[in-house]
C-alpha cells in the first residue's frame, strides 16, 4: 500500500478581519425596512395601493382645511383635533401595515434566519414596533405640517408663526400618543397569526367592537361608570388623555358634546401607559420563543 | 349537501380559528343583558348596541372573515386548484361555497341580534332583526366572495368598503347610503317591526331591490371570475 500523497494547497482563503456591524446595525436596518414596508416602498405597485390611499385621503383633508382657513378665515379643526377626526383611517392603516410587518415573516418562516444574526429576541419586536409607531406618527404628523405651513405663510409676522408653532407642538405630541397606543395593540394582534387576512380582520374587529362598549357604559345610571367609560376603547382612551392634558386645543366648540371625565383625568393617562406597557410586554413574551412555523 | 360545501364547512370549522367568530356575538349579547339588567332605557342603549355594534360591526366583520375565508383562503394557499381541476361547472363551486358563507354568517349574527332585539323591545323586533340580518348576510357574503376572486387582498378591499364607505362616508354624506348594505338591513328591520330604535334615510323598496341586485350581480361576477381564473403565485 503506497503512502498517501494528498496535500493541502493554500488557495488563499482569508478570514474577514474588517469591522463587524453588530446588533445596532441590524436593529437600524430592521427599523428602516419596517418603515419602508409600512408604506410599501421598495415593493410592487400593488403593495402601495392601500397605504397610499390612506395617506392621500389625510393629505387631501389637510389641504382642504388649510385652504378653507386661508380663504375664509374659519378654523375647521385644530392640529390636535386632526388625529381625532381621522381615527377610522388610523385603524385602517394599522390593519394594513401591522400584518405586513410581522405576519409575513411568520408565514414564510424566516424568523429563525433573523435570530441567527446578532439580534436579541427583544430587538426584533421592538424594531417592528418602533417602525409602526413612526409610520403612524408620519401619517398623522405630515398633514399637521401641511396645515402649519399653510397657516404660517398666511399669518402676518413672526408672532403669528410662533403662535401657530405653539399650537402645532402639542398636536404632534398627541399624534405620537395615538401612534404609540394603536401601534402596540395592532402589532400584538398581528403577531398572533401568520395570515395577513386574519390579522387585518382581527385588528379592525378589536378596535371597532370596543367603541359601542363605550357608548353603553356612558349611559349607565352611575356617574363614575360614565366618566370612566372612555377607557374601554383605544380611540376614546387617547381622546380622554388629550382632553385632560390640553382641553383648550381639543374642544373649540363650546356647544359640542364634551366627554365628561370628572376627576378621572389621571386615570386615563395611567390606563394609556398601562395599556401600551402591557401590549409591549405581551409582544416581547410572544417572541421569547420562536418556533420555525 | 354537496362535497364542495362539505369541504368548505370543514375548512371553516376544522381549525381553531373559527373561535375568532365567537367574541363579537357574545359581546353583543353581553352588552344587551347588562343594559337591560341595570335598567337603562331601551331608547338609550338600543341604537348603540343594535345598530352601532350589531348591524355596523358584527354583521359586516363576521361576513368579511367568513366570506373571504370560504374561497379566498383556498386561493391563498393554492389548494383551490384541486377543486378547479374537477369536472364541475363553476357555478357548482361558487354557489355551495356562497351558501355555506351566508348560512354560517346568518346563524352567527342572527341569534345574538334576536336576543338583543328581544331584550330591547319585543319578540317582533328580535325576529325582524334576525331576518334582516340573515338577508344582509347573504348580500355581504355574495359581495365578499366576489371580492375574493377580484383581488389577492380581499380582506383589505372589504375593509375599505366596511370602514371607509359604510363607516366614514355613510355618516357624513347621506347620499352614499343608497349603496350601503348596512342601511338596507336597517330599512328592512324597521319595516318588519316599526320602532323608534332604528332609523335610516333609505326607503324599503330601494333596500329590497338593491339587496337582490347586489346579491345576484356579485354571484354572477364571482362565477364569471372563477371561469377565467388564473393560478398565480404571490407577487407582492
From TrEMBL, chain A:
Transmembrane residue ranges: 49-68, 126-151, 171-190, 197-220, 267-285
Keyword annotations from UniProtKB, A to Z: Membrane, Transmembrane, Transmembrane helix
UniProt protein name: ABC-2 type transport system permease protein
UniProtKB/TrEMBL annotation, chain B:
Alphabetically ordered keywords of this record: Membrane, Transmembrane, Transmembrane helix
Domain of life: Bacteria
Bilayer-spanning residue ranges: 49-73, 94-119, 125-147, 154-173, 202-223
A Pfam family hit: ABC2_membrane_4
Protein name, per record: ABC-2 type transport system permease protein
Source organism of the structure: Micromonospora phaseoli
Taxonomic lineage from the root: Bacteria, Bacillati, Actinomycetota, Actinomycetes, Micromonosporales
Amino acid at each position: 500500500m503506497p503512502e498517501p500523497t494528498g496535500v493541502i494547497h493554500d488557495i488563499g482563503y482569508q478570514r474577514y478581519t474588517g469591522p463587524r456591524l453588530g446588533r445596532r446595525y441590524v436593529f437600524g436596518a430592521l427599523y428602516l425596512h419596517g418603515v419602508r414596508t409600512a408604506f410599501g416602498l421598495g415593493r410592487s405597485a400593488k403593495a402601495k395601493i392601500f397605504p397610499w390611499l390612506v395617506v392621500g385621503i389625510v393629505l387631501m383633508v389637510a389641504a382642504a382645511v388649510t385652504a378653507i382657513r386661508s380663504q375664509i378665515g374659519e378654523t375647521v379643526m385644530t392640529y390636535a383635533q386632526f388625529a381625532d377626526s381621522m381615527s377610522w383611517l388610523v385603524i385602517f392603516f394599522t390593519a394594513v401595515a401591522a400584518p405586513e410587518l410581522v405576519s409575513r415573516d411568520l408565514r414564510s418562516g424566516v424568523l429563525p434566519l433573523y435570530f441567527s444574526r446578532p439580534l436579541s429576541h427583544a430587538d426584533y419586536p421592538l424594531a417592528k414596533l418602533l417602525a409602526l409607531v413612526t409610520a403612524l406618527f408620519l401619517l398623522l404628523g405630515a398633514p399637521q405640517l401641511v396645515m402649519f405651513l399653510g397657516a404660517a405663510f398666511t399669518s402676518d409676522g413672526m408672532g403669528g408663526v410662533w403662535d401657530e408653532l405653539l399650537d402645532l407642538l402639542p398636536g404632534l405630541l398627541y399624534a405620537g400618543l395615538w401612534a404609540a397606543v394603536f401601534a402596540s395593540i395592532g402589532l400584538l394582534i398581528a403577531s398572533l397569526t401568520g395570515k395577513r387576512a386574519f390579522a387585518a380582520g382581527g385588528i379592525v374587529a378589536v378596535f371597532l367592537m370596543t367603541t359601542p362598549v363605550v357608548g353603553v357604559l356612558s349611559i349607565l345610571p352611575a356617574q363614575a361608570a360614565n366618566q370612566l367609560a372612555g377607557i374601554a376603547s383605544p380611540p376614546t382612551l387617547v381622546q380622554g388623555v388629550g382632553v385632560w392634558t390640553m382641553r383648550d386645543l381639543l374642544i373649540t366648540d363650546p356647544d359640542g358634546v364634551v366627554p365628561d371625565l370628572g376627576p378621572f383625568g389621571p386615570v386615563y393617562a395611567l390606563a394609556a401607559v398601562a395599556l401600551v406597557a402591557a401590549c409591549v410586554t405581551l409582544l416581547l413574551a410572544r417572541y421569547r420563543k420562536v418556533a420555525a412555523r | 349537501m354537496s362535497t364542495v360545501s362539505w369541504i368548505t364547512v370543514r375548512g371553516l370549522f376544522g381549525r381553531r380559528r373559527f373561535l375568532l367568530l365567537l367574541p363579537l356575538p357574545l359581546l353583543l349579547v353581553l352588552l344587551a343583558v347588562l343594559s337591560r339588567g341595570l335598567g337603562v332605557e331601551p331608547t338609550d342603549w338600543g341604537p348603540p348596541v343594535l345598530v352601532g355594534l350589531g348591524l355596523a360591526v358584527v354583521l359586516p366583520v363576521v361576513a368579511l372573515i367568513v366570506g373571504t375565508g370560504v374561497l379566498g383562503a383556498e386561493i391563498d394557499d393554492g389548494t383551490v386548484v384541486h377543486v378547479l381541476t374537477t369536472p364541475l361547472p363553476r357555478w357548482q363551486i361558487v354557489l355551495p361555497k356562497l351558501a355555506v358563507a351566508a348560512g354560517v354568517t346568518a346563524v352567527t349574527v342572527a341569534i345574538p341580534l334576536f336576543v338583543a332585539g328581544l331584550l330591547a323591545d319585543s319578540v317582533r323586533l328580535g325576529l325582524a332583526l334576525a331576518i334582516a340580518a340573515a338577508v344582509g348576510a347573504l348580500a355581504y357574503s355574495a359581495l365578499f366572495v366576489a371580492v375574493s376572486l377580484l383581488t389577492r387582498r380581499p380582506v383589505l378591499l372589504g375593509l375599505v368598503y366596511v370602514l371607509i364607505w359604510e363607516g366614514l362616508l355613510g355618516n357624513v354624506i347621506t347620499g352614499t347610503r343608497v349603496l350601503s348594505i348596512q342601511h338596507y338591513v336597517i330599512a328592512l328591520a324597521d319595516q318588519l317591526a316599526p320602532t323608534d330604535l332604528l332609523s335610516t334615510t333609505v326607503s324599503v323598496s330601494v333596500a329590497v331591490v338593491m339587496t337582490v341586485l347586489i346579491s345576484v350581480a356579485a354571484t354572477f361576477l364571482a362565477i364569471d371570475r372563477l371561469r377565467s381564473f388564473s393560478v398565480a403565485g404571490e407577487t407582492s
